[in-house]
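Thread title: Can someone regenerate the structure for this chain?

I was given the following input by a collaborator and told the matching structure tokens would be attached. They weren't. Posting the sequence so someone can regenerate them.
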Amino acid sequence: MSHRMDSVTVIGLNSRGTALAQALAAAGATVVAWDEVGPEPNPSAETSPVKGVPRAESLQTAFTTASLVLVCLDDYDGVQRVLGQAEPYVTAADVVNLTSGTSAQAEQVAAWMNARSGHYLDGALMAHPEHVGDPETVLVYSGSAEVFERHRTVLTHLGDATYLGAAPGTAALYDVAMLNFAWATLIGFLQTAALLGTAQIPATTVAPLLTRWLSTTVTDVITEYARQIDDRHYPGDQEWLELDAPLMDHLIEAGRARGLDTALPELIQSLTARGIDAGHGKDSFASLTEIIRARQ
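Best answer:
Regenerated them for you:
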């Protein structure tokens, strides 16, 4: 491939795609952008909405003038549609896809690319658009190791780039798994803020305490639980489900007394009760993994 390593086309100018193009341009990469403008010609199609990033003249140009095509669309239907339109030129550049989806969708696109001798790397951006370009922003990739190594420098301009292995669906699986962690953590914060708010305690007052707690005690607990989960051994020498259960009752009672929705703590209480019923009463909270795994 004769193109310069730092020539990049960004396909998709949603908020995430725009942030990707801006971060790469700010880092000094040669960047053009392309997005679908509908079936009718758009008189402003030559003008990119990303400052300092020109719009590619055509989809063919988007692929044939770049060493790397970075795709970030709203869904995998869009990815398949664009790649299908670009099929005659799809081998002209390496393709890295940062569109959110499932591992099955990522594997389907990877198989389509492989059947056409294309070079494909799937990825996931674990942040909001405003975090793109921050060295600590987490991005994960899986699929072609060669594509990852060829463009590692460019990818690090978007954030911390981690390669997860050759299976193309792994990054998408990490994406949904980490979203699960984020949403579970944040809904816990919202419940905490609402509960303390009933006593006129501002969320901004408790947030520093919670973030400090997360970065110290909770981090240590997660590390210990990870070992227990992998070993499938849950020693309850420090805490155990039968110890936790009454505390959950207290939380539900406090929420109800203050007029709050208690669906979240009731869910945790229900899982804990099922764990105790399954014989994990003397095991650590991490033993609830076995309840969650019950349908495997």
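Strands lie at 7-11, 30-34, 68-71, 94-97, 120-125, 138-143, 160-163.
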